[in-house]
UniProtKB/TrEMBL annotation:
Protein name: MTMRD protein
A GO MF term: guanyl-nucleotide exchange factor activity
Signal peptide segment: none
Region named Disordered: 160-179
GO cellular component: cytoplasmic vesicle
Gene field: Sbf2_1
GO biological process, one term: regulation of Rab protein signal transduction
UDENN domain span: 1-76
Lineage summary: Eukaryota, Metazoa, Chordata, Craniata, Vertebrata
Amino acid sequence: DKEVRAIFLRLFAQLFQGYRSCLQLIRIHAEPVIHFHKAAFLGQRGLIENDFLTKVLNGMAFAGFVSERGPPFRTCDLFDELVAFEVERIKAEEGNPPKIIKHVRELAEQLFKNENPNPHIAFQKVLRPTEGSHLRVHILPFPRINECRVQELLQEGLARSQGAPPATRGDKKCVVPAGPPVGMFTSS
């Protein structure tokens, strides 16, 4: 599923390439409002008549996208890096399927690493109880928790986590890279 997600990530990075240059920060209200200038975005890309992109930009999902990704100072992620720095690579791979597949696999691997920063930690799946299991009489009541044992386990976990390697991506806020201007992308 990571490869499918990588394909969509790449698609939306291509679709919204240069969107940051069409963001406007309005400071009339107590809270600044971020507005996306749709006409400028479509005009600079030569896609004013494109019904699909117009409907995408008018949708609620895109409004949420702008409100989440509009602020100039926030935590950056893989999408921001794609939009800002991978423009030339995506353009160069346009007619070469093996290169596109290689890039998709690299993105999928990065998505996997971002979601599983500590691959050595395995999680057990807890099975859902069967229907009517709460009516069974033979089930013993939940045992009382031993507070001393809980504290010991917490101390052991803290000791282990202090020796663990740092996560692959921090949640440090930074200035979001603007990327190239919209005018670079005139193909539909």
